[in-house]
């Protein structure tokens, strides 16, 4: 460390510096009046006198200053100057070097020298350019000997490329830190990085799942070291019903309780049910029960993956194709309801209404006649289809159904819009 601070770089193993060093007098002359290429070449010599490297830190040429920033023989005083350089490329090179060297500090290093290096690190961790901050975050993500406040600042950076590395790896972030970050409603990419941390405790895993972030929940399920309670798994299963991206990860989770296996088998594809049976080592009786449940769903047409398992066109792809061709209308939807092609109905209604497929599924499963009528209205369909949706898709009891009013919807447009907004939010 002392050699770095003062700019003295002793040869290792008798080997010379990477670049041939000029005599001191010739070096001074090049520094004063040499061409840019000569100055750049000289600035790359790790065993160059520290005063010359310090002088080069203010060179008019960006190429020269960049070489000084890259040079591990540059004294820290010069690095402090370069940390405020106006050229992004100079600070990027410095970030790569400082980020790489600071984690190698040893306890016996002189306190003042460490402070100087930390000053440079801190300046770069607050740089206006996200890529500079990202480089620092990536280099110190696993370090235990960097100041905690720098890690905390990087972890809360508005740019995911900056915060993600330390969130996923830094040992300096406590469970309380992680919970506070989650409570601040950070984005999916940041939550996913946090979800990949080794040995996440149950309380943190639970907080992640409660954000309802599909990307983060998927990363959590794929994190084999994360501790996920049965209660949290139950919440994930509820979310996964309408989130196909979670089906495979939850099936591949180890040591699933029998109750959870039954629940998962009620909504994943036949292929994944077979995977679930094999991974869980279920007895023949229970395996047969789960397979029968899948067959029942196939017969009812209530599985998005039925077509996938049988080699037919997926329900969502069929709906998208017909929507693009302008073929989705009241007649097609009515026919699909009669044929119990329920997965297709959901996707078709979502496209016609301009809402997400998960939102349409939630509205149909809500048990609310008003919500189902609002969905039909938004899709441009009439009350006749809304009645069919209530009786044959949602299976509502007569007392829960909404009847037609003079052939039209028995709700005001304001109320219909409210239900759409409520389920879409």
Please explain how this structure is put together:
With 425 residues, the chain is mainly α. Among the domains are: 255-312, no CATH class; 318-424, no CATH class. It contains 28 helices and no strands. The chain has helices at residues 2-6, 24-33, 36-43, 50-56, 62-70, 76-82, 88-101, 111-125, 130-140, 148-155, 160-169, 175-183, 188-195, 202-209, 214-222, 230-240, 247-251, 258-265, 270-280, 284-300, 306-310, 315-324, 330-338, 342-353, 357-364, 369-378, 383-393, 413-424. Helix 6 (76-82) packs parallel to helix 8. The chain is elongated and about 100 Å long.
Report how far apart the termini are: 55 Å
Average per-residue pLDDT, rounded, comes to 86
Radius of gyration: 31 Å
Order of helices and strands: HHHHHHHHHHHHHHHHHHHHHHHHHHHH
Structure summary:
This protein is an all-alpha fold.
Can you tag this structure with a few keywords?
425 residues, mainly alpha, 28 helices, 0% strand
Set down the secondary structure blueprint.
Layout: H1 2-6, H2 24-33, H3 36-43, H4 50-56, H5 62-70, H6 76-82, H7 88-101, H8 111-125, H9 130-140, H10 148-155, H11 160-169, H12 175-183, H13 188-195, H14 202-209, H15 214-222, H16 230-240, H17 247-251, H18 258-265, H19 270-280, H20 284-300, H21 306-310, H22 315-324, H23 330-338, H24 342-353, H25 357-364, H26 369-378, H27 383-393, H28 413-424
